[in-house]
Write a structure and sequence with these properties.
Oligomer: heterodimer
Number of strands of chain A: 0
Shape of chain B: extended
Helix content of chain B: over 70%
Number of strands of chain B: 0
Distance between the termini of chain A: 56 Å
CATH class of chain A: Mainly Alpha
Structural class of chain B: mainly alpha
Number of helices of chain A: 5
Structural class of chain A: mainly alpha
Strand content of chain A: under 5%
Radius of gyration of chain B: 22 Å
Chain lengths: 107, 172
């Protein structure tokens, strides 16, 4: 009971693990490529949360963790936007974003 | 103390719920709303970890910028109400099995290799470096990274649009 009530490092790590695994499942099971991109973003958020947790519990100034997280977030957002631009172009060419349909069309 | 526990667990449920809703939503707009909720709730969790600047940063960059960008994109291609499908059930079960196996193996590895002490992996955060630099000096390369990425995106966009035009002409 005390483990559940005393919020600590492990609780945040479990949350980050849940989030990461949910994102991974999303990448594996979704057919729509836009949702795959969203799932990748969930995984990025899990990583940021992991860094912040370590920063909070191991380095009280939080300086390094903040810097790493800002970098990770910025790069992931830009990466997501590039992926969306590519998806838009794929949509213009195929009229759908279903990965399986596109694969069938290529075959 | 009690409010802290309540705050953490309510956010835990909201975050995991939003993430599951994204991957299982039946309509595209529901997935988008869930993404926005996920961004806002994780921002609130960052506040609990004393990272208020990052929370604001995430809210502006992801909540306002990214979500609105996806919304406008979907509106442009008229797919806001698109029904989303999952892959066949067998593949879902196999994927979940692999993911759970991966999670289990990763946890066991950390437990065995680092004696349940995850701190050691992130030693670079704890280390007190002698050559301390200011926050602004760390941030400086970010401009370069963003500039490079924007230039790459622009080049990629031009390249893709020309390729799409070529493909469309070939199809016709």
């Amino acid at each position: 009971m005390a483990v559940i009530l005393n919020i600590g490092l492990i609780h945040y790590l479990i949350l980050a693990l849940f989030l990461f695994l949910t994102g991974l499942i999303g990448v594996l099971i979704s057919r729509n490529m836009l949702r795959t991109v969203m799932s990748l973003f969930i995984m990025t958020i899990a990583i940021v949360l992991n860094f912040l947790t370590f920063g909070h519990y191991c380095d009280k100034t939080m300086e390094n963790a903040n810097i790493i997280c800002i970098f990770v977030l910025t790069i992931s957002v830009v990466q997501t936007i590039i992926a969306l631009v590519i998806l838009y172009k794929i949509y213009q060419a195929n009229e759908y974003l279903d990965a399986e349909k596109i694969k069938d069309k290529e075959n | 103390m009690e409010s802290n526990i309540f705050y953490f667990y309510s956010l835990f449920i909201l975050i995991v719920g939003s993430a599951i809703c994204i991957i299982l939503a039946s309509r595209m707009y529901l997935a988008l709303i869930s993404l926005f909720c996920l961004i806002c709730t994780t921002g609130l969790l960052y506040l609990a970890l004393n990272a208020k600047y990052l929370a604001v940063f995430q809210f502006i960059l992801c909540g306002i910028f990214l979500s609105v960008y996806i919304f406008l994109l979907l509106k442009k291609i008229r797919r806001l109400n698109l029904s989303l499908k999952l892959v066949n059930p067998a593949k879902i079960i196999i994927s979940m099995f692999w993911v759970l196996l991966f999670g289990g193996v990763a946890c066991l590895f950390y437990n065995e290799e680092y004696s349940n002490s995850l701190y050691t992996i992130f030693n670079f955060i704890i280390e007190n470096s002698s050559d301390t630099v200011k926050f602004s000096q760390h941030i400086f390369p970010l401009h370069l990274v963003m500039l490079l990425v924007i230039v790459t995106a622009a080049v990629l966009r031009i390249f893709l649009s020309s390729q799409t035009q070529k493909q469309n002409e070939e199809d016709k």
